[in-house]
Amino acid sequence: MWTRSVRYGIPHAMQAELTLLTARWLAAGHPPTTVRMHILRGLPDDGTPARRAGGLLRYLLREVPPLPEQSQPPSPQAPQAPQSPEPSDASGPRISSRLTGTRECEDGRHIQPMLFRPVGDERLCPSCTREPSWTSAASIA
């Protein structure tokens, strides 16, 4: 029986290409958080699943935008102007509506960012705040 090696909905043959596309972003000076935010902004807003995740990632990562002027370090000769507080711009990064109201777990145990919907002002996801199962079993006995 023939099976296709797929990881996270991405065919094995496409993983090397996506790695190279991501490496181009990093080589251009974009931090990993910028790449992640660019991908998140490109997800469908209405909650429809991506049928071909690899194709979507290839489409989103194919063009590497130039670095914004403010993220480049200032030259040592140029005097630094005082920073004035700027009003928040409504045309800032657009995040998928599916991610509105989510927060990233601040525990640090997760390999990848763990998003959850907080009920109150909690900073940890439910799995990090939950008591370990072996502790609760020992307290019952």
What is the helix content? 25-40%
Percent strand? 5-15%
How many domain units?
2
**How much is the average pLDDT?**
74
* Quaternary structure type: single chain
Helix/strand order: EEHHHEEHH
Rounded radius of gyration (Å): 21 Å
Alpha-beta classification: mainly alpha
Q: Strand order, main sheet: write it out.
A: 1-2
Q: How far is the first residue's CA from the last residue's CA?
A: 49 Å
Low-confidence stretches: 81-88
Shape annotation:
globular
Largest sheet: 2 strands, antiparallel
Word description of this protein:
The protein has helices at 12-27, 32-41, 53-61, 126-129, 133-140, and strands spanning 6-7, 10-11, 103-104, 115-116. The protein has two domains: 1-66, no CATH class; 101-141, no CATH class. The protein is mostly helical. A hairpin with a 2-residue loop joins strand 1 (6-7) and strand 2 (10-11). It is globular, with a radius of gyration of 21 Å.
Summarize the structure.
The chain has 5 helices and 4 strands. The chain is mostly helical. The chain is globular, with a radius of gyration of 21 Å.
SSE layout and pairing:
Layout: E1 6-7, E2 10-11, H1 12-27, H2 32-41, H3 53-61, E3 103-104, E4 115-116, H4 126-129, H5 133-140
Antiparallel strand pairs: 1-2, 3-4
List keywords for this structure.
141 residues, mainly alpha, 2 domains, two-stranded antiparallel sheet
